[in-house]
């Protein structure tokens, strides 16, 4: 499961690297960081707690086995973490931003990017 998460983050990272400069005015970096944080917390943290529970490091307390306590601990942590992340993400998406450039400015920017890409490809 963790391998699939890493594989799913890779293409999103590629897209992010390509649009980061274009969407800088929309504060895309913190939004992407929160997106990655949710992925890591949901997958990696749960896997680590489950491994600890299966190895018996998380002690059992009647009526719960160590696996049940590990699962309960993981879910309780995720509830609190996702609540905090939702508050932070809400503040990120509710900001007032500068208006997006007009279509003419966007076309000019696309032409500049195409020229730079052509120059880079030609230099290689």
From TrEMBL:
Transmembrane segments: 6-23, 35-64, 76-93
Cell compartments where the protein resides: Membrane
One Pfam family recorded for the sequence: Solute_trans_a
Top-level taxon of the source organism: Eukaryota
Entry-linked InterPro entries: Ostalpha/TMEM184C (IPR005178)
Topological type in the membrane: Multi-pass membrane protein
Keyword list, A-Z: Membrane, Transmembrane, Transmembrane helix
Main location: membrane
Annotated protein name in UniProt: Organic solute transporter subunit alpha
Organism: Xenoophorus captivus
